[in-house]
Design goal:
The structure is a single chain. With about 130 residues, this protein is mostly beta strands. The chain has one domain (about 5-125): OB fold (Dihydrolipoamide Acetyltransferase, E2P) (Beta Barrel), CATH 2.40.50. The protein has one helix spanning about 60-70; strands at about 5-15, 20, 25-40, 45-60, 75-85, 95-105, 115-120. A hairpin with a 5-residue loop joins strand 5 and strand 6 (about 95-105). The radius of gyration is 16 Å and the shape is globular.
Length: about 130
């Protein structure tokens, strides 16, 4: 039986996207996305809670995100949640959760030049393609 790992986040871009290339020449763009949830606490006061996400976009989607998305813009990101770990220079194991984007929609200041950016899930690279 097949499973499903999918995440959808709407938020504000917190860092300008940074595009790099894997050793095989595949473009990958990374940026941070902040999503704020507003809710009422049990005592009735309004609360805000912000979650930060690291987003990776690959290939054509990486190029579009790098070209059109900037810090402060609103974006819809749809993709799959990936977890990975590595050993840092200090010998400590580090863990990170990332969204590998299949689709990014730019939600503000739309222009004819900057349509929604999409990539089919079949084009996603393997974890060995990571440039970092």
């Amino acid at each position: 039986m097949a499973g499903l790992v999918k995440i959808i986040v709407i938020g504000n871009v917190g860092t300008d996207p940074e595009m790099r290339y894997t050793p095989q020449g595949t473009p990958v763009t990374t940026f941070r996305l902040a999503a704020t949830r507003v809710f009422n606490s049990p005592d009735g006061t309004r609360q805000e809670e912000t979650e930060w996400f690291t987003v990776l976009a690959w290939r054509r989607l990486a190029e579009q995100v790098s070209q059109y998305l900037t810090k402060g813009r609103r974006a819809y990101v749809e993709g799959r949640l990936r977890s990975r770990s590595w050993v840092g220079n200090d010998g400590q194991t580090r863990y990170v959760n990332e969204i590998w984007a299949d689709r990014v929609i730019f939600l503000d200041r739309p222009t004819a030049e900057a349509p929604a950016a999409e990539e089919t899930p079949e084009e996603s690279p393997s974890p060995n393609d990571l440039p970092f």
